[in-house]
Design brief:
The structure holds 2 protein chains of 2 kinds. Chain A has a single domain, classed as Sandwich (Immunoglobulin-like). Chain A is flat. By secondary structure, chain A is α+β, with helices and mostly antiparallel strands. Chain A starts with a helix and ends with a strand. By secondary structure, chain B is mainly beta. In chain B, strands 1, 8, 10, 13, 14, 15 and 17 form a 7-stranded antiparallel β-sheet that branches. In chain B, strands 9, 11, 12, 16, 18 and 21 form a 6-stranded mixed β-sheet that branches. Chain B is elongated, with a radius of gyration of 31 Å. Classes of the chains: A alpha+beta, B mainly beta. The interface between A and B is large, with 56 and 45 residues.
Chain lengths: ~160, ~350
């Protein structure tokens, strides 16, 4: 247990160090964004019946579908517009087709490391059989383009599932 | 028990375990994310206030630690079965132990000879006495050590539970040899050896599928938070089989004597060599239609009328006696021979 905690801490430190710039910006910005990971788990409720609940996914085996949820909130005093949430598909995971959701958002994907984004039907790859639609496993990024203004104090939520390879 | 049984190097066992160098081979392009990997998700938001783009904001990372999968896989490589004489010693069965998990894992190995209930017509192999260093119930199991295919005595180390339990990296495999002796058994009797490998992660042995070994991680420091048992009891089993041919057949050919033209025993042109072929049949059964044929090589000339079988002179002609010389080949038709039996054939040839 001691060992695994140490590993997580080291990982977090490494991550924070790697994104020091955006993190610094976060302290001054008007929009706060948070990301959480959850997995579905069968639990027995108070009524004694089994049902599926979302529980925090701090640990999971390969093959597990992890639900990543990003919440954003306008913590400033002015309405925000042109909101776009950009989410690289986590390394060692594969996007689960059709899982991305987000109210009032146009959802597009990238297969070129985030340079360009398009709807799934417009993402094409060249194969020996000619041009084909890119498979979800080839997606590198998801982008939610929020179509509305976000008023001060308002929040939004987007998310997707990815399976640990 | 002779001293030869004790000739195994314990230093080598330790080395093999310490360096994890009992030769592991890649068995599959397993793509499972290694145990201990941190999966991180970060969302970055771009936005504008009053039409003016602002600095992007980034979330803290959501982190998921990849747990370890415990999934040994064991297969028999000696298919369909290994034919053995009756009796016979040191016959090798070959198994392949693979790590189907996503982290390095240590496994213990145990053998069960002729596991019960013994099917009708089956016999129980015996741990190879000559290769069972400690004369234990799990004896005569060897690990591929020198990376040369097949069992090499002395080069491939004996497995001793608790001493050199193999450590196998994710997606890799290790060849395991099991050596057995066979006593006098009926022809076509089958002898099974069941090999069972079990994860040595604490709490894994005997655990049900999906057992989560909380906080234990891997004994080997994979960095995984938990170890999840995927194969029932965290073990894998496979059976390899021997089939008794019933008859042991051993044939040896040797040069009994050389007589050179000068009265000595030097190999030179004109020297006459006396060859001896010994045919030994052991075990139980009848070898039917047994024919021993020996073509004379180009640099030798057969000495006419020189064949003897069991000390009795034979003619070269195809006739009533069992021997003949035709198309430059000595052949002896022994017919149906009941084991055990031994037949000695001699003939002579001159060096050209």
């Amino acid at each position: 247990m001691q060992m695994s905690r140490m590993f997580v801490s080291v990982g977090l430190v490494a991550l924070l160090a790697g994104m020091s710039l955006p993190s610094f910006a976060a302290t001054n910005g008007s929009i706060k964004v948070a990301s959480i990971a959850q997995i579905e788990k069968e639990v027995v409720g108070a009524d004694g019946k089994k049902h599926i609940a979302l529980v925090p996914a701090d640990k999971a085996v390969p093959g597990t579908a992890v639900l990543f949820t990003n919440t954003f909130e306008n913590i400033g005093s002015k309405a925000a517009g042109n909101i776009a949430i950009n989410n690289p598909i986590p390394a060692n995971t594969e996007y689960q087709a059709g899982s991305a959701y987000g109210a009032d958002s146009e959802i597009t994907f990238s297969i070129d490391g985030g340079k360009t984004f398009a709807a799934p039907e417009n993402l094409k790859v060249k194969t020996a059989q000619g041009e084909q639609m890119a498979k979800p496993s080839a997606y590198t990024h998801i982008r939610w383009s929020y179509q509305k203004q976000l008023a001060p104090g308002a929040t939004g939520e987007v998310g997707f599932r990815a399976v640990i390879k | 028990m002779s001293n030869t049984k004790r000739k195994f190097s314990y230093f080598s066992y330790a080395l093999c375990a310490w360096l994890f160098s009992c030769f592991a081979i890649p068995v599959s392009a397993l793509a499972a994310t290694p145990a201990g990997t941190l999966i991180t998700n970060t969302a970055i938001v771009n936005y504008a206030i009053g039409g003016t783009p602002q600095s992007p904001m980034s979330s803290l990372a959501a982190v998921v630690l990849v747990d370890e999968i415990i999934q040994p896989v064991l297969t028999c490589q000696s298919l369909p079965s290994v034919a053995v004489n009756s009796p016979s010693i040191n016959d090798v069965l070959t198994f392949l132990l693979s790590n189907g998990g996503n982290g390095s894992e240590s496994f213990s190995i145990a053998r069960s000879n002729g596991p019960l209930p013994l099917p009708a017509g089956n016999y129980t192999p015996i741990n190879s006495v000559a290769y069972d260093p400690l004369n234990t119930p799990t004896g005569a199991i060897f690990l591929e050590t020198n990376n040369v295919a097949g069992f090499q005595p002395g080069a491939d180390l004996a497995y001793v539970p608790g001493m050199n339990d193999p450590v196998i990296a994710a997606g890799k495999g290790l060849v395991v040899y099991v050596l057995s002796d066979t006593s006098n058994v009926p022809a076509n009797a089958q002898g099974d050896v069941l090999l069972i490998v079990t994860s040595r992660t604490t709490g894994a042995a005997g655990a049900a599928v999906a057992t989560r070994l909380l906080g234990v991680g891997d004994n080997l420091g994979n960095g995984a938070g938990n170890a999840i048992v995927v194969t029932p009891r965290a073990e894998a089993a496979a059976t390899c089989s021997y089939v008794a041919t019933g008859l042991g057949f051993v044939m040896n050919k040797s040069v009994l004597s050389v007589a050179d033209p000068l009265g000595g025993a030097l190999l030179m042109p004109g020297a006459v060599m006396t060859y001896q072929i010994t045919v030994n049949l052991n075990g139980v059964g009848i070898a039917s239609g047994l024919v021993v044929s020996d073509p004379i090589p180009a640099n030798l000339t057969y000495v006419p009328g020189s064949i003897s079988v069991g000390g009795a002179a034979m003619t070269d002609a195809i006739d009533a006696d069992v021997a003949q010389f035709a198309t430059n080949t000595v052949s002896v038709s022994l017919g149906n021979v009941a084991a055990p039996a031994s037949v000695v054939i001699t003939f002579r040839a001159t060096i050209n």
